[in-house]
Amino acid sequence: MITVHVNAIGVSDIPRGLIRRAVRETLRREGVPSAEVSVTFMSDAEMTTLQTRYLKRSGVTDVLSFALHVEGQEPLGDVYIGHGQAVKQAAAAGVPPEEEMARLAVHGTLHVLGYDHPEGPERAGCEMYRVQEEVLRKAVGA
Asked: Which candidate in 13, 41, 108, 142 could, as Cys together with 8 as Cys, close a disulfide (CB 3.0–4.6 Å)?
């Protein structure tokens, strides 16, 4: 069974159905029949605090993921999305905020499943980003 939790305290414009669909589509694409993923939308200040505490990096980030399972166990993970950052990125890319939020949910879920990407310009052409955009098209078009 796939369980997806969507949490957003104090934020009303979260497309919960789309986020659940995007996470489920990511898991289906990767052949995962059973998993539990929690997606939590936070303020940019909260995201900055998490990034500083857990990654030892300063500044705001758009998404952070934590895999809470070990190899051989059903995937279990937490995905944190910076709501304000997602809205800013959507505006800069000329896409609806809902699409960017779903993109970040997919991205975070892929990290929970063990995907990673390089830093820098080659990042956009890597396998993780190709999978991310493939899944996003299916989830948004569904």
From this structure: 41
Radius of gyration of the chain (CA): 14
In the predicted model, what is the mean pLDDT of residues 20-36?
97
Which residues, 6 or more positions from 108, have their beta carbon under 8 angstroms from its beta carbon? Answer: 39, 63, 64, 65, 77, 79, 80, 81
Enter the DSSP assignment of 63.
Answer: E
| Locus of tokens 């029949």 | 33
Partners of residue 63 on adjacent β-strands = 81
- Of the candidates 35, 117, 19, which has an alpha carbon nearest to the alpha carbon of residue 68? 35
Q: Are 126 and 24 in contact (CB under 8 A)?
A: no
Averaged pLDDT of the chain = 93
Give the list of residues 6+ apart from residue 7 with CB closer than 8 angstroms, or none. Answer: 38, 39, 40, 41
Q: Which pLDDT score, from 0 to 100, does residue 67 have?
A: 95
Q: CA-to-CA distance for 13 and 10, rounded, in angstroms?
A: 10
